[in-house]
Amino acid sequence: MFHSRNAGAAQVQPTSPVPAHAIRFATPVVETPAVFLLTRWVYRAVRSVVLAPFRFPVAVSTLAGSVATVHYLGWVWLAVAVLLAGAGLGVWWWRWPVAFRSLVVLRAVAAWRWLWVYRRHWQPVLVVAGLAESYQERQYLPQIRKVTCTEWADRVRVRLVAGTAPADVENRVVELAHGFAAPSCRVTVAGPRDVVLEFPRRDLLAEPLAALSVHSPVDLCALPMGLREDGQPWRMRLHGTHVLTVGVTGAGKGSVIWSAIRALLPAIADGTAQVWAIDPKRMELSYGRALFARYADSAESAVGLLETAVNAMQERAARYAGRQRTHTATADDPFVVVILDEVAFLTAYHPDRDIRRRAENAIATLTSQGRSVGFGVLAALQDPRKEVMNLRNLFPDKVALRLDEASQVDMVLGEDARERGANAHLIAPDVPGVAFVRLEGSPAPVRVRAAYVTDDDIAAMVADYGARGLRSVPGAGVA
């Protein structure tokens, strides 16, 4: 019989090729000799002892003095020294409380917060927040260099891990604030790999501010506007500068405008200051139009007002030429502030190209030439993009209320504003009037809150200071 050559052989099904697996390399584990561990522990202990007098001079001096007193004089003299020191501190606190709080209390608070809050929770907070870096199965953390305290906040100076950027910390400010139980966190760049984390112990700007009282005489270079984050009054300069206020709808631009008008009331009454108002929405400024020397609420009348201001400015400059270089507000030559609410309506959104061109030319002329002869511009804007408002660099002082995007912060306040902690895009919607202010010649933005001027406050302002000679401009339709 004939048999197949494969008779009795098992039938083998063809198989799919097995994909190659990636080769995984494990980091070799080498036992560290005990002598190296012991040497490192001894080094750390000696280093801590050597640096202790420099980091905690008062505590180390007190401890050393107490030990020396007990050793040479006994416990009785130590008790006497403690009583005398306590009496001396009491007299210091009674006679010079400010110096005592600055040199003793705040330093003690800083030492306590460094030990109990930051050093104790530093590693878990930074690991959970995503600021810990790993390399070859070793963990690297930013290091605390110093903790100082002011009346309202803790300032934690931190050395970053090599290869990280301040932006990595800025993107984790919410996590850091919650991790250390602070209302907020602000990051300021102090140098290469050197940042300062500012944690307020309480937010002084959390509660709305009522309209401020009206004070006379008026300092046009320091108008009371509200409160700064350190508890000091926020004062804004109008004479000799121009101010651009930017914020989304509901951010509190009206609070800034009306606080400035309220601060000017005595000067308006005695004729040394005038407010020329442009109100395209007819909802923000129209309620107090009796306070204004000129008022416009349509595109044509607004451009007419701006061109009238340019003519008045140039006439004054011609009179000053060769006679004086600075302006002093008087009844004959009052300080004129032109307030433009929603300035983008004139410069970008209006369909008439001629209106946009005339408005831009007039605003550019006022902001480039008006400050030295007593003409200032206070403009409000929602969208800071260059195609909407390409004149923003002509405003020396800027106020950034709540913004939509992080990139808009640098558009308004300058290129490095976010690196200095001005996180206007993180302002909560429920705190209208909170803003970051950057002044001409000052690199550091300041967090502030403008006072809220209610409709009743405006009605009282009109009743007490309302002008009798309100003038319209061509096309304004104002009686």
From TrEMBL:
The chain crosses the membrane at residues 72-92. One of its GO terms (molecular function) is DNA binding. Coiled coil: none annotated. Keywords: ATP-binding, Membrane, Nucleotide-binding, Transmembrane, Transmembrane helix. Gene3D superfamilies: P-loop containing nucleotide triphosphate hydrolases. SUPFAM superfamilies: P-loop containing nucleoside triphosphate hydrolases (SSF52540). Pfam families: FtsK_SpoIIIE. CDD domains: TrwB_TraG_TraD_VirD4. InterPro entries: FtsK/SpoIIIE/SftA, FtsK_dom, P-loop_NTPase. PROSITE patterns: FTSK. ATP binds at residues 247-254. Residues 215-410 form the FtsK domain. This is S-DNA-T family DNA segregation ATPase FtsK/SpoIIIE.
